[in-house]
Amino acid sequence: MIHGGHCIAILGPTCSWKSEIALSLAEAWGAEIISCDSMQIYRGLDIGSAKPAEQELQRVKHHLIGCLELQERYDANKFVQAAEACLQQIWQQGKPAILVGGTGLYARALIYGFQMLPSDLELSQKLQAELKMPEGQQKLQAFVEKSVRNPAGIPVEIYRNPRRLLRACEVLQLTGKPPWELAKKLDQPKACYRQFCILPELSLLKERIRRRTEKMLLSGWVEEAQRAAAAGLFSTLTARQALGYREIVDFVAAGSPGGISALQELLSNRTIQYARRQLTWFKYQHPGAIAIPVENEERATENIMQEIKRNLPC
Fold first, then answer.
1. Distance between CA 127 and CA 189 in Å, rounded?
2. In a shared domain, residues 94 and 30
3. What's the whole-number mean pLDDT along residues 209-233?
C-alpha cells in the first residue's frame, strides 16, 4: 500500500475502469480521491461526465467533483492549484491520495510541473466580451498572428478552440509572449507520485463505450443536456466543451431523426474518437508511468489491481 505524503495516479482513457479501481484502493488504504477530470468539477453535468454515483461519493471522500457552476472558468492552472491544496489537506491527516481521471493535460501539469502562466480576471472578461462581438474570433486570431514571432508555429488549437484562443490573447497581453513559448515541458515526475496508465485495446474500449452510452441515455442524459443548455451551458467558457451535450441538444432540435438508437450511435462514435486521442496522449506524454495493457474484459479489474499493487514500493 501507500502512505501519507504519497499519491497514486490512475490515468487512462474514458471507460477504462479508473474510478472503480480508485474506489477499491482508496477503501483498502484509507485514502482520499482527487478527480482529474475537466468536466466532473461542474454541477449539473453528472450523467454525461460519468461522475461517481452518490453512494460511491459517500464510501470514500472525493475532491474536485461538483464544485463549480457552469459559468465558472476551469483550466490546467486552476486545477493544479486546487489539486495541490487538496493534497496538502489529505497528507496533513496522514492519509495517502489517489489521483484519478482522463484529462491528460491536467494530470501532466500536476505530476510533472509546468510554469504557471499569469492571468488577470478583468482582462479575461474583456477578451470574452470581444470574442462575442461580430467577427470577434477572427479579430482575436489576427491579434495573435501579429503578436508572435513565428505565425506559422501557432498551434492549430488556437483556431479550433475559443478557450485556447482567449488564453493565448491573455498571456500575450500580460507577458508579450504566447503560452506555448513560455510553458516548460518537464519529463521527470515529482517524487511523491506513482503513475499507472490503463491502456485497453481499442476494440475492447469501443464495446465498453457503447454499453455505457446506452446506460447513460437510459439514466436521463438527454434531459440533463436540455437542463444544462437552458442554464446557459453553450455560452460558458469551459463547460461548453463537455462531450456529447451539444450533440444531444442539436439532435433533439432536429426532430430526433432515427430515434434513440441513432443518437446512441452518434454519441458512442464521438466518445470513441475522444478515447483514441486519450490513448495516444497517455502512451507518449507520461514518461516513467507504468502502462497496464488490457486485452480482454474477463477479470480486468482484478488484473489491474494486482498490477498496481505489484509495482508499488514496499
1. 34
2. yes
3. 98
Domain boundary among 138, 154, 182: 182
Answer yes or no: is 187 within a domain.
Answer: no
- Tell me how far apart the alpha carbons of residues 131 and 20 are, in angstroms, rounded to a whole number: 40
Per-residue pLDDT tens over the stretch 101-124: 999 999 999 999 876 678 888 999
Residues 74 and 129 in one domain: no
Q: What is the rounded average pLDDT of the residues 121-147?
A: 94
Full residue range of the structural domain in which residue 229 is found: 7-114+192-310
204 plus 301 within the same structural domain: yes
CA distance 175 to 200: 42
pTM, rounded to two decimals: 0.82
Beta partners for residue 34, in sequence order:
63, 99
Query: Is the domain of 105 the same as that of 23?
Result: yes
Q: Is residue 28 part of a domain?
A: yes
- b/e 50-81 (16+ beta carbons within 10 angstroms → b): bbbeeeeeeebebbbbbebebeebbbbbbbbe
Mean pLDDT of 257-266: 94
> In 3D, which of 198, 205, 197 has the Cα closest to residue 273?
205
What DSSP string runs through 239-270? GGG-TTHHHHHHHHHTT-TTHHHHHHHHHHHH
Inside any domain, residue 234: yes
Alpha helices in 60-201 (DSSP H): 76-92, 104-112, 121-132, 136-147, 157-160, 162-175, 179-182
Q: What pLDDT is recorded for position 98? A: 98
